[in-house]
Structures are given as C-alpha cells and as structure tokens.
Inverse folding.
C-alpha cells in the first residue's frame, strides 16, 4: 500500500514537472532565469526539482503539502511564471538567496566606478 502511494505521488510530481518544463521550454535546470545573475559557470548536478523563483517554496510546500501544490500546477491554478525547474545543486544554491538579494547586489555593482 505504501509503495503504491509513493508511486502515485511520484507520478503526480512528474506531471507537475512536465507542465513546468513545457512552459519553460525544456526539462532542464533553468538557473539562468535568476534575475540579475551576472555570471554563472557552475555545472548542473543532481535530479531536477521544482523551485519557486521568488522564494517561499518551503512555506508553500509545508502549508499546502506537496500533493496540493502539484495538483494546483496540473489544474492550471498556478501562475507558472513563479515556478521553474532547478537541479538539486542549483536549487540548494538559490535556497537562501532571493531575487531581492540579487537586485540589491546589482544596484551595488552599478555604484562601483569603472
Ligand atoms: Zn542546475
């Protein structure tokens, strides 16, 4: 029974990921969608995961449960603009850095005289 449940969950997760991949134009890591990212040369590593571009993913999954998040994605009740796929390595990489942090960094960079 447990095995069956796990498989079902995995399939639902994969369906949600396929929707995001279709929207983004490929089943791959979309680290380049991080705004204000200057250069990024770290190669991808690990399995693909669903990422909330503007942060809040952990809270979202915790409050709604992963099942409901996947369900919302599949039913089109989610703004796919807020989501992307990231490899495990880049997902971890961006976990503690938000768009706001990158924007601030970008502004700081502009103040440096060349
Ligand atoms: Zn990656």
């Amino acid at each position: 029974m447990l095995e069956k449940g796990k498989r079902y969950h995995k399939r639902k997760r994969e369906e949600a990921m396929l929707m995001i991949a279709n929207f983004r134009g490929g089943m791959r890591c979309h680290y380049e969608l991080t705004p204000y990212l200057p250069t990024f040369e770290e190669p991808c590593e690990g399995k693909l995961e669903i990422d909330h571009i503007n942060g809040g993913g952990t809270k979202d999954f915790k409050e709604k449960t992963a099942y409901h998040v996947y369900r919302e994605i599949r039913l089109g009740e989610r703004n796919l603009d807020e989501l992307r796929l990231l490899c495990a390595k880049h997902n971890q990489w961006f976990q503690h850095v938000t768009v706001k942090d990158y924007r601030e960094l970008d502004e700081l960079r502009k103040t440096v005289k060349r």
